[in-house]
Amino acid sequence: MNEIIELLQRKNLVWHAKEEKPISDVTPSGYVDLDDKLQGGLPNVGVVEVSTLVGIGELRLLLPTIIKQAQKRLTVFIQPPSFVNAEYMHNQGFDLNNILIIFPNSTKEALWAAEQCLKSGACNAVLFWCQSLEVHQVRRFQVAAETGHCVNFILKGEQTNTLSLPVPLSIQLSPHPWGINVRIPKRRGGFPLSEFTVDMSFHWPSLTLHPPENNIVLFPTAQVV
Amino acid sequence: MTLWLYLHFPVLQLDTLYSDQKDKSIIIVEAKKNAVVQFNNAASLHGITLGMGLGTAASLCCDLNVHPYQADIEKEKLLEIAHWLYMVTSDIVFFEPNGILLRVSNMLTLYDGLDNYWQAVKMHLTPLKLHFHYASACSPLAAQLLAQSGFDQVINNEEKLLGAIQKHNLIETTLPTKTIEKLSRIGVNSLKDLLSIPMTEIAKRFDISLVNYIGKLTGKFKHPINFYTPPVCFKRCLQLLFDIENTQWLIRPLTLLLNKLESFLTLADKVTHEIVITLHQRDSDDVDLVINSAQGDNTANKWLKLSALTLESVQINAPVHSITLCASRVVARHIAEVDLFSGYQANTSPLELLSILQAKLGKQAIKGLTLTEDARPELTSQFCEPLSCERSSNAINLSLEEKLRPSLLLPVPERLIDKVSVIQGPERIATGWWDGHPIVRDYFIARSKQGRWLWIFRDQKKEWFLHGAFS
C-alpha cells in the first residue's frame, strides 16, 4: 500500500491540502488583508464574479490591481451603471487613451462585445456590469479570457438565491464603516472564505468612517513558492 | 518599329455577370438590332449563334437567361481591366467597347524579351477569369484586326505579321462599306490586294481616308492615341445574376469584390480606413454602408469580417441587383510597433478590436474618455472618439490638482431621495458664469444607510442632488 502511495507521490499525482501553494498568476491588490486571504492577490486571467451594491467601494477594491496589470493594454467598461469619471481614472493613474466604455443596445450585444474584448488579447481587464448570467455564457467568457490573457470582472447586484456559476473566483462584497466586507464563497485551489474586512482607511481616509482603534498594520506573511 | 499588343474581349458583359451556375444558358441581346451579341458555352451547345434574333434563340433553348446589352457595363469593366493591367504594363489605350491596346516596345527592357512580357501579362489577367483574344502587330490597327479575328499569337516577326494581315478580307476591316464596295469593283477584295497597290496610285483614285487607313495599318503613319492614367481610389461594381433579398447571401458576391480590393491594395502596398458598400436596390433607393477600420486594412478577410458584422444589422426593403464597392481613402500602411519583451503579445491590436466593435454595435456605442480643464464636474470628464484622444491632453491635465472625485458620475444629477449622513464637505464649485451654464454648488461626500458612498450637492435653492458614487 505504502509503495503505491510513494509511487503516486513521485509522479505528482497526490494532492495534499496542507501543501497548498499560492496561485502564481496573480497581481497584488494593494490591500494587505485581501492579498493575504487570496494568497497573493487577484488573478490576472479568467472570470471573477463580484456581487456588490453600487457605490460601496467595489471599484476602489479592484482598480489598483487593474492598473498594475494594464501594461499599455486596454481596460474596457461594458454597460457601467453610470458614466465613468475621467478625472477619477486619471487620478488613479490610468492612461485615458487605453480606456474603452461600451454602451451596447441590448444584452445580447453586451455579451458579444464582452467576449470579443476578452478574446482579442488587446485588453487586460473587462469590467462587465450585468444582472444575471447563465452558466454557458460564463464558460464562454472563461475560455475567451484565457485566449486573450485577460481578466473579466463580472459585477452584479446582490442576489440571494442564484445558481453557482462556474467561475474560478467569486467575491461577495458588503459595506463596512472602515472599508469593505469581503466573503469568498468560491475559489479555485482553495477553500471558501468566510467574511473578513478589508481596511481602506489607509488608502481612502476620507471614505472610511472610524479607523480601527488598534492601529496595527498587518505585515504580509512570507510565502513559500 | 513599335510593337503593339491588342486584347479583344468578345464576351465582356457576360464575364462581368456574377453566376455560380455554369450550366445555365445566358445570352446578351442588343435590343435595337434584336440580335444576340454575347452568349456562353451552355448557350452555344443549344445552337445559339451571334446575330441571332431573340425569338429564334428562345425557341432553341427553353430556359434561357436573357440580359440586355449595356455598353456602360462593358466600359466600366474595361476600365477595371486597364487598371488591373497597369500593375504590370505602363502604356494602355482603350478601344471601346471591348478592346485594350498595350504598347509593348517600352516594356521589353524591363521584362527581358517579348515572351516574358506576354507571360507576365497573361498570368496577371488569369485571376480576372475573362475570355479574350490577343495579337501583336506593328500598328494599333493591325493588332486590333488580328486580335478580333482570333489570331492569338504574340510574335515579333514583321514579315509573319504582314503575312497574317494580308490574309484578311476587306470586309473584316473597319473601312466604310462604301469604300469596300468601290475597291471590290476594281477587283480588290483582300488586304493583300490593297497593300500591293502603290500608295500614290491609291491617293490618286481614292479619298484621303483610305490612304490614312493604309498608312496606319502598316505603321507608316502615326496613329494618335490617348494613354490611360489610373485613378488613385478603388471603385468596382458587381452585377448580380439574381436579385438577392437576404443580406446574409450578399456575403458571397461581396467576397469577390473584396478580393479585388485586396489585390489592388496589396499591389500598391496601401491600406484603406474606410470602404463604402452601396447596395443598389430594385425600384428603391440605394443603401450606403460605411465600414470603418481604425487601423487600416488591406486584407479581404478582415474587411469581410467587418462587413458581415455590419450587414447583420442592415435592413433592405427591396431586392439588391448590384453592389458597388468604393474605397476612397487609400493611405500608406502604418506598422504597429510592439516590443518583443513587453509581456503578453496580443493577436488583435486595439484598433482592430475597435473596428470590430464599431462595425457591430455602431459608432455611438463605443466611447473613450478625455479630460478637460473645465471645473464643472460634468464637463471635466467627457466622452471622446475612442483611442484617438490627443496625447497632449494628458500632459495638460497633469497640472490639475488632484481632488477626491467619485468614480461613477450620473449623466445628469438626480434629486436626492435616500437618507444620507454627510461625512465631508462642503466643497464649493461656482463657475461657468461666462457661457450661459453657471453652477453654484456645494458638494458633500455622504454615506447612505446602505453603506454607499455618494457625492451629493446642494444648489442655491437649498435643494439636494445626487451626482455620483465613490464605488
- Major interchain interface with per-chain residue totals: A-B, 55 and 61 residues
Indicate the radius of gyration of chain A in whole angstroms.
19 Å
Look at the structure and give the mean pLDDT of chain A.
85
Helix/strand class of chain B: alpha+beta
Helix/strand/pairing category of chain A: alpha/beta
What is the number of helices of chain B?
17
Roughly how many Å is the radius of gyration of chain B?
35 Å
Instruction: Give the % helix of chain B.
Output: 25-40%
How many strands, what sense, and barrel or not for the largest sheet of chain B?
Answer: 5 strands, antiparallel
What oligomeric state best describes the polypeptide chains here?
A: heterodimer
Number of strands of chain A: 11
Q: What does this protein look like?
A:
The complex is a heterodimer of chains A (225) and B (471). The longest helix of chain A has 14 residues, at 107-120. Chain A is α/β, with parallel strands linked by helices and 225 residues long. Chain A contains 6 helices and 11 strands. In chain A, helix 5 (107-120) runs parallel beside helix 6. In chain A, 28% of the residues lie in helices and 26% in strands. The model of chain A has no long low-confidence stretch (mean pLDDT 85). With 471 residues, chain B is α+β, with helices and mostly antiparallel strands. Chain B is built from 17 helices and 19 strands. In chain B, the strands form 5 sheets. In chain B, strands 8, 9, 10, 11 and 12 form a 5-stranded antiparallel β-sheet that branches. In chain B, strands 15-19-18-17-16 form a 5-stranded antiparallel β-sheet, with no helix packed on it. In chain B, strand 16 and strand 17 (439-448) form a beta hairpin. In chain B, helix 13 packs antiparallel against helix 14 and helix 14 (300-312) runs parallel beside helix 15. The mean pLDDT of chain B is 84. The chains are: A alpha/beta (225), B alpha+beta (471). Chains A and B meet through helix 3, strand 5, helix 4, strand 6 and helix 5 of A and helix 15, strand 13, strand 14, helix 17 and strand 15 of B.
